[in-house]
Amino acid sequence: GEALAVSARVAPLGSRLVLLLVEDLTEARRIEAVRRDFVANVSHELKTPVGALSLLSEAVMDASDDPEAVERFAGRMQIEATRLTNLVQELIDLSRVQNDDPLEDAEPVRVDELVAEAIDRCRHAAGTKEITMAAAGADDLRIWGNRGQLAAALGNLVENAVNYSPARTRVGIAARTVVQPGGDLIEIAVTDQGIGISEKDKERVFERFYRVDPARSRATGGTGLGLAIVKHVAASHGGEVTVWSAEGQGSTFTLRLPEARAARDRAHRMSHRD
Ligand code: ADP
């Protein structure tokens, strides 16, 4: 009777331990698979422009007595080289946001400056498509975070809004404070009147290298990493990014990030707790 009772007491604990170990292994295996997929994706993404460059340089050599053809091929080489540069830069950005703790050198970051920078970065692309960009509400708002990472995140959202919109539409950037008991948040919403995203793709667009339409993304110089970077920046700042979209009508990507004063007060309270 005694032995039975003991084993009955031990058994649930034992099976829970086994279960934990199995879960741990599954999680480790999943992470390993994600890592392997990522390396395979990167290799593939690098190979495409490098392969094109190699073919194009051969074509230039063969066409040396046809200046018009040389010019055409050289133009395409430039496009492929830009693509390669973008991809390498975004890979560097992604590894940076994954490895650096943004709150280590956090500071109050002015939202109006972030918005102006993001608009500046897209001015050329927006201009050629006659897309109007308008910002509202950003004055006097500050986020607690890493300036470079926040700029990269907002820049990516505005860039996408321009890239995935037809000519003569509007991109709006609206910022406001959301008062919350746990500490105020700054909300920045980027709205476009573009192609939109289907219900099924909405969950996946934040994955690394996921694109709804790879050809379109590539044509605009997209790398498929932008939203993965945005998501990581939001999460590591203790915030989030969400998307609302209707196919054929447009999308709104919303960033919610800690307000500077609220975040600093909270950090202060935590460090002075008995
Ligand atoms: P990309 O470099 O391809 O733009 P992202 O990670 O920034 O990569 O976005 C992933 C995919 O999500 C894009 O390829 C596109 O299909 C979709 N997407 C992102 N932003 C928008 C938007 N504003 N409107 C419609 N589709 C979008």
From TrEMBL:
GO terms for cellular component: plasma membrane. GO terms for molecular function: ATP binding; phosphoprotein phosphatase activity; phosphorelay sensor kinase activity. Its main location: membrane. It is a multi-pass membrane protein. It catalyses: ATP + protein L-histidine = ADP + protein N-phospho-L-histidine. It is found in: Cell membrane. The keyword Transcription regulation does not apply. GO terms for biological process: cellular response to phosphate starvation. Residues 41-261 form the Histidine kinase domain. Keywords: ATP-binding, Cell membrane, Kinase, Membrane, Nucleotide-binding, Phosphoprotein, Transferase, Transmembrane, Transmembrane helix, Two-component regulatory system. It comes from the Bacteria. Its EC number is 2.7.13.3. This is Sensor-like histidine kinase SenX3. The lineage of its organism: Bacteria, Bacillati, Actinomycetota, Actinomycetes, Kitasatosporales.
